[in-house]
Amino acid sequence: MIFDGHNDLLTRLWLSSAEDPVHDFIHGSLPGHLDLKRCRQVGWTGGLFSIFLPPYAYLQKNYPEKLLDPSSSDFSAQQIIDICCAQLVFAQQLHVRSEGQIQICTSAQQIKTCQQNQQLAIVLHLEGAEVLECDPDVLDVFYEQGLRSIGPLWNRKSLFGDGLNASFPHSPDTGAGLTVQGKALVRKCAEKNMLIDVSHMNERAFWDTLALIDQPIVATHSNAHALCPQARNLTDQQLQGIQESQGMVGVNFDVAFLRRDGQRNTQTSLDIIIDHLDYLIEHLGEDHVGFGSDFDGSLLPDDLSDVSQMPALIERMQQRHFSDQLIEKISSKNWINVLSRILKS
Ligand SMILES: [Zn+2]
């Protein structure tokens, strides 16, 4: 069984030009890394599903039909709210239209129940908090609808802090930390027993977050900076901070976060993923490492081109002498444990 720290399916559903992508996900096949059939085949039982505002320039270039006025230079506040609400609605449609096969979970116990019943478990995650800049009440509304995880910052600068937009190679120290509003947001989300994701934080915001909250610190989809000096990856000092909080890191399968040369080259051996797992286990302990695939938002190695290839990775872990018990922890147990310590049941 696999539970996965990060994917961008909801954003892909929103971007899709298919007539009914929700139907295709549940009943047919959907181009991309995930659909229900392939998830079932390999025992991928769910994970954190991101609600994400893609960069404006990216939409202008690749999906102009998604913008009200592609000639303008940025989103309107209403557009940002609409885009995030549309992705939340996709999650709800997946639940409603799957006749119970897909559930939105708000506790570790609900995820375990889904795993027992062979249902797909969605834990809703907000990646970047620009929508809360437009209307702070969205947090409470989304929480009511099941949101239980937030990455307060993404790569761009916002009201809540500087982004993490750096060339390769680069240290994660790319600017100022959390703003006053960013700190208030982190505190508020921690009080609501939400997971606070530090994956897209620069180093100062990371340490600001550690100083603010008592709960386990989680990087849902980041790797080891010592093996791939990408600003999004974690230095040994950051790993120590996560370890002291009894937190968790999910290994990202994107080649640019894995490879020592940072190249976007899909001819990348699965061994590099194992190397990151090994390194993180050495620094965090075997109870604090999992997967954070970034499916549907990443450039994957050729041998792990979608979720159906997960058995190849597990097999490689076995060949590299990971015990069955350790594979179980990395594949699912560690995530369920950390979520059971953060989320209210
Ligand atoms: Zn991300």
Automatic annotation (TrEMBL):
<dbReference type="InterPro" id="IPR032466">
    <property type="entry name" value="Metal_Hydrolase"/>
</dbReference>
<dbReference type="InterPro" id="IPR000180">
    <property type="entry name" value="Dipep_AS"/>
</dbReference>
<dbReference type="InterPro" id="IPR008257">
    <property type="entry name" value="Pept_M19"/>
</dbReference>
<dbReference type="GO" id="GO:0070573">
    <property type="term" value="F:metallodipeptidase activity"/>
</dbReference>
<protein>
    <submittedName>
        <fullName>Peptidase</fullName>
    </submittedName>
</protein>
<dbReference type="GO" id="GO:0006508">
    <property type="term" value="P:proteolysis"/>
</dbReference>
<dbReference type="Pfam" id="PF01244">
    <property type="entry name" value="Peptidase_M19"/>
</dbReference>
